[in-house]
Design a protein that fits this description.
Outer membrane lipoprotein wza fold like, 3 domains, wza like fold, 379 residues, alpha+beta, single chain, four-stranded antiparallel β-sheet, six-stranded mixed β-sheet
Length: 379
Amino acid sequence: MVMRGREARFLPKWVFIAAVAFCLVACSTQEKETKFDLTLQKPEDVKELQKLETELTVTPEKAALHPDYQVIQNITVPYIPEYKIGPADVLEVVYNIRYESSPQEYRLEVQDKVSVTFPYNPQFNSTVLVRTDGKITMPLLGDIEAESKTPMELAAILNQRYSKFIEHPNITVALEEFNVKIDEMRKAITTASRGQSKIAPVAPDGRISFPIIGNVQAEGYTVPQLEKVINDKYAKLVRNLNSTLILNEIHSSKVYIFGEVEHQGAVDMPSAYSLLDGISMAGGLKVTANTQQIIIFRNDGLERPIAIKIDLDPVLKQGMTYADLKLRPADIVFVPKGRIDKFDDIVAKVFTKGIYAVIPFSTSVSASYGLGGTFVTAP
């Protein structure tokens, strides 16, 4: 298929990557057609798939020779973009309120309560609350700005103002109640079961609700990025508070199923799905589906992409199950309509027609595809 320049310009980057990689596989030899890595026709064949995946898994020894992998604590990890939070993911927010001593003087905040003492004129003694506008009200003077001032700074201002009415007032200011926001925060975040932490699911609109600071956009951020955002917001309102985010559950992993199914496109995969589970989530098979030649393209944690052809007839007609065949994140499943005669044909259908037709331009696929030692990532 030849695409005009305007069409090609708006294609998602991962479509080009996947198409080029698999087309290179298909065209790697002119004399011999590239074959599927495996054909599964009965449940026992899944063991051969597991054996192949074991052979292709990138080990620490292989990673040492591969520039696109790293070894962390003897675990091989590909160099891929950090995971970005998505709807339905569940985070735990752990709050740490610091009580260590600080050389900086305490500055008054809204809702702090202070006592103002006149040693020689006790009739003016007052206990006042810092209002939401940051001011206190004093006899004779009226409103005085108090927020963000130290008690000594406030006392100096009051002495200056009252010296017009009283000779040598010698006023002192003492804290009665302070760190009120921290106390409110502690009440808001403390539960009997979890202590000072909060379970925070990401809403369908991509936001999370936090105590005091309200709703914060989470979708699209990495965990460290979101952690910085919420700590910056809290720093403007609550002193000595630090928040740590822990990603407890991931629900935005996806597989991509298209072809002769009722609902083509991305399918959420919050847990390990079987192939039948995935097809069911896509609305089931159409009556025109060729159930003997269903294809899975896979590259999750492997040295190179693999293509697996699966015969579902034993499952659908004889009640057998591929119990050990589980879909992996970013698997691409294609259910053909007619018989597949050449591997090259299925590559063309999947990577130059199928995905382009069913996946929105804005979709981002977290899969890596590569060939011949060169790996590229579609973020």
